[in-house]
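Is this the right way to post structure tokens for a design question? Let me know if I should format differently. Anyway, here goes:
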């Protein structure tokens, strides 16, 4: 079976130019190997600055790979044309961390959800599109009556549901979720996580779930990859990683996870 995402020996280097002195090269990703299977939820966990978001940007074509190979649905993304990226993005969508900046405040929900359909020439019939948009909102547990409202009229949790609906509009095979609940209240986080779990199961999505929260990763993910200083230092099934972490860095992160213990 062809992997949804296959990353081999991936390096990414950024260029830094100080106020004084020569520019320097700073390695962000250093030899990353990663495989996401169809229908799998893979958690990418690590502290801030370890390279999680940079890896997502490389997968999405926002930043180039310095070295290594990245294959998405069996297609090498190096040198991919604009037309090739357009077709690929129909099968791979993203949900960003901040629901307040990821939605254009000038657009109604109808326009936000219709834009990807318009770009890819889908649901050109007005009646069919209207029905589909209503179904999209219902799939993220929102009222279709919200179609003509603007983002500022919604709470953070509702905005993130709209962002998820937009990501699902093209019926993708792969979903990249870059810390999609970290900006939400704890009670709302639980609702959105349950929604993501339900959607992933119904649609059999391959999900790369990026987070710094091990508790969230344990709830949602089949396997977990631990990223540290641009390298994957541990990769294991979620339950195994929590019960028998092998690396000292993973053990340190797990020790920092809050827990409630009964005191006698």
């Amino acid at each position: 079976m062809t992997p949804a995402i296959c990353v081999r020996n991936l390096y990414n280097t950024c260029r830094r130019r100080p106020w004084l002195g020569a520019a320097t090269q700073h390695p962000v990703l250093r030899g990353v190997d990663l495989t996401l299977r169809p229908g799998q939820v893979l958690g990418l966990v690590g502290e801030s600055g370890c390279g999680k978001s940079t890896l997502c940007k490389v997968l999405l074509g926002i930043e180039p790979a310095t070295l290594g190979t990245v294959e998405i649905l069996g297609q090498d993304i190096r040198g991919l044309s604009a037309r090739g990226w357009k077709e690929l993005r129909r099968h791979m969508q993203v949900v960003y961390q901040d629901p307040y900046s990821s939605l254009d405040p000038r657009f109604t929900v109808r326009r936000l959800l219709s834009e990807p359909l318009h770009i890819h020439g889908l649901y050109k019939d007005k009646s069919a599109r209207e029905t589909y948009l209503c179904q999209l909102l219902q799939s993220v547990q929102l009222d279709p009556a919200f179609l003509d409202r603007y983002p500022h009229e919604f709470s953070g949790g509702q905005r993130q549901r709209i962002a998820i609906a937009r990501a699902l509009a093209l019926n993708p095979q792969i979903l990249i979720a870059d810390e999609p609940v970290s900006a939400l209240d704890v009670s709302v986080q639980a609702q959105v996580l349950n929604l993501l779990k339900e959607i992933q199961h119904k649609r059999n999505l391959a999900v790369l779930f990026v987070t710094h929260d091990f508790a969230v990763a344990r709830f949602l993910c089949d396997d977990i990859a631990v990223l540290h200083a641009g390298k994957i230092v541990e990769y294991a099934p979620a339950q195994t990683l929590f019960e028998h972490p092998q690396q000292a860095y993973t053990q340190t992160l797990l020790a920092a996870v809050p827990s409630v213990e009964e005191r006698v």
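Format looks fine. Someone answered above. Worth noting: The beta strands are 5-16, 24-36, 41-45, 67-72, 75-76, 92-95, 174-178, 206-211, 223-228, 231-237. The mean pLDDT is 91.
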